[in-house]
C-alpha cells in the first residue's frame, strides 16, 4: 500500500484498437547507416514483395555526390559486374555503383504480441502488426561479377577445334524411366530443402509503388492507424477480465516446449495422453494394446472418467470379441496403405483380419492353415493377425489371449446385442468375399458357446496327456499280445520274430500347430488342422493323397514353364512372389493350395529345363538367401539360345561385367560382329535385363 501511495496515477489514457490495416501492416527494420549519411541521402527506386513468404526486396539509390562515397571503388564494382559494354541487361547503366538492393528476412516468427501505436489527443490507437521484416544488403551483384570473370577466362582459353565440334554433334543419350514414387518418398521430397527452395522461387514477385513520407497518399494511409469508431462494438477485444488481460500481456512461453528433445512418434507418456480428447485417448490405447478388457481401459483413462462416454467412444475404434475389446482393422491398416510383407493393399488386409476376429467370436481356437486357405494371404500377414489377439499353443492352434469377460457381458447386454448385430453384418460380407463353406460358418461345439468356455490349466493338461498315453499304451500292449498269440497258434513250428511296432513321429511345429485334442471344451472340430471334407485335396501330416500328387505336379510345372518363357532369368525370391500372385488369382479349393514348399518349387524349376546360375555375389551383399539363388532357362528353342548360354556363362564368373566385355565374348563365341544396338537387343531378349 505504501508503494502504491508513493506512485500515484498521473493520467489515464484511453486505448483503442484500429482494424483498418489488420493483416496489412508490416514493420521494416533498416540497417544502421553511418552518421554522415541521413535518410535524405537514399531514395527508393523500386520495391517488390512475395506475400506468401513475406519476402521483400527494395532497390535504393545511393548518393554518389556525397563526400563519404568512394567513386573509384564504385567504378571498379560496376566494371566487374557489367564489363566494358553497357546495354539493357547492365546492372549499373551509369558505370558507377549508384544503387543498393536490400532483401528481407523475418525478425520474429510470432508477431501477435506486437503492435504499432499512435498517440493523439490523449488517445492511444493500436494496430496489430502482420510481420516484422529486417532488411539486409543483398550482394547478388558479386555473383554476377564472378560469372563475368569465368566467361572471360573461358573466352581467353580459345574455342574448340572443328574436329571437337564435329564430335560434339553426336552425343549418346541414356534414357531412364523413373520408378513409381511411394508415399514415404514423396513426403521426404516435399520436406527437402531443394523442394522448398523451388517452391519459393516459383512464387511470382508483386511490384509495389513507393510513396514518400510527405506524399498525399502516405498521409491518407496513415489515417487508417486511428480507430474509425470509438464505440464498444469496435473495441470488444479490449474488454477483458483482469486474469484474461494478464494472460494476454504475459502468455505462457512456448520456447521451453520447443527446446525439449523430440520423443519417437510411437511413444506417448500417460501425462501427454490425458491432455488429448477422450476419443483420441481410447484410439491410441487400443491401437497400441490391440486387445483389452473394459475394466483395464477404464483404469488407464484415470479416475473420474464417465464409463458411458468410454463405451460410446470405444465402439468407434474396437469390436467386442468374447467380452473383450479388439481394435478394428481399419484403425491398424488405414486407407492407401499396404502390407510391409507382401504389399497387399489395406482393404484386403482388413478383410483377412476381420475373418480372424470373426473366427474368435465362434471359438477360442483358430488354426493358421485354415485362415491362410480362406484369405489367400501370405503366412507373414496371417501370423501378424493372429499375434494381435491370440497365443500359439503346441498341438492346439492359436488361442484367444484373454479369458472370456463374463462380468462385462452381464452388465452391458445392450452393448453385447448391438455388437452381435455388427458381427452378423460382417459375416454376411465375408460370406460373399470368401465364399465360405458350411463348416466355416457352423461353430465347432455348440456347448462351448452356450456356456462359459472351459479353461484348463497347464498341470491339468499334463495329467490328461499322461493318462491318455497310459491308456494308449495299454491298448497297444493288448493288441501286441493278441497278435503274438495268433501267430504262435497259426504256425507253432516256425520260429519267427515278432516285428517291432513302429510309430511314425511327426515333428511338432510351434509356428504351425496341429489340432489333435480330443477334449470336449477345447476341440475345434478339425483333424490335424484340416476339415474332414477337405481331406481328399489337402495334405494330411505333410503328405498328399496319391491321386493329387500328379495333378499338383502338372499344375506347378505349367506355371513354372509359362513363367520362365516370359522371363528367362529369375531369382528364387521373385519366383515365389509371382507364385503367390498366381495363387491369389486361383479359385478356392484349387489343387495348388495343398501346400508347395520351396524345395518342391526349386526341384520343378530344374525339371523344366532350367539351370541354377551360381553368380559370385560379393560377401558383403545385403541380399537375402532367396535373392542370391538365380535360375535361368537354358534352352527356349529360339534364335537366342546360344547368346543366352554365353551370357549366363559370363555372369557365372562375375556378377558385374562391362558391356564391351560382353560384346567381345559374344563375338568370339558366336562368330558374329555385334554392334552396341544388337548387344542391347540380345541382353533384353535373352535375359530381360
What is the rounded Rg?
Answer: 41 Å
Going across the biggest sheet, name each strand in turn.
2-8-5-4-3-9
Give me the secondary-structure category: alpha+beta
Low-confidence stretches: 445-454, 493-543
Q: How many helices?
A: 29
Mean pLDDT: 75
Which overall shape is indicated by the principal axes computed on the Cα atoms?
flat
Oligomer: single chain
% residues in beta strands: 5-15%
Helix content: 40-55%
The CA-CA distance between the termini, in Å, is: 91 Å
Question: How many beta-strand elements?
Answer: 18
Largest sheet: 6 strands, mixed
Please specify the SSE layout and strand pairing:
Blueprint: H1 2-6, E1 14-17, E2 26-29, E3 43-50, E4 55-61, H2 71-82, E5 99-106, E6 115-120, E7 123-128, E8 131-137, H3 140-156, H4 162-169, H5 183-190, H6 193-202, E9 206-208, H7 216-222, H8 242-249, H9 255-259, H10 270-273, H11 278-289, E10 291-292, H12 294-301, H13 307-317, E11 318-321, E12 324-327, H14 329-332, H15 346-362, E13 365-366, H16 368-375, H17 379-389, E14 390-393, E15 397-400, H18 406-411, H19 413-434, H20 438-441, H21 446-450, H22 458-490, H23 546-566, E16 569-571, H24 572-584, H25 598-607, E17 610-613, H26 625-628, E18 630-633, H27 641-651, H28 659-670, H29 676-687
Helix pairs in contact: 2-3, 11-13, 15-17, 15-19, 23-25, 27-28, 27-29
